[in-house]
Specification:
By secondary structure, this protein is an alpha+beta fold. The chain has four helices and two strands; from the N terminus they run ααββαα. It folds into two domains: 43 residues, no CATH class; 45 residues, no CATH class. The longest helix is centred in the first third of the chain and has 15 residues. The model has no long low-confidence stretch (mean pLDDT 93).
Length: 90
């Protein structure tokens, strides 16, 4: 899901998040979001990625960190992750 609740009001967002929790019992769900609060609420595991530009000017996604969501949001191992989730970067 790419930004599954962007532009939704809080009531609709809660309904979508409830549905995602129900579906997660039977399916793996991958969510791409910039909403850190939502990521913390609904995910079991979190990956933080960034984009690097190579010598040819091509952008490539790079995995910075991957762990249980509680770990990422409380004690991230990488300073870039910490800067992003605390709003100092991005």
């Amino acid at each position: 899901m790419d930004e599954p609740c962007s532009a939704l009001d809080p009531i609709a967002t809660a309904k979508i998040e409830d549905l995602m929790h129900q579906l997660a019992a039977s399916f793996t769900i991958v969510i791409v979001t910039h909403n850190m609060q939502q990521a913390a609420r609904i995910s079991d595991r979190t990956a933080f990625l960034t984009a690097d530009v190579d010598e040819a000017g091509e952008r490539h996604g790079r995995l910075v960190e991957y762990d249980e969501t509680t770990t990422i949001f409380t004690t991230p191992a990488d300073k870039r992750t910490e800067a992003y989730i605390t709003g100092r970067f991005g």
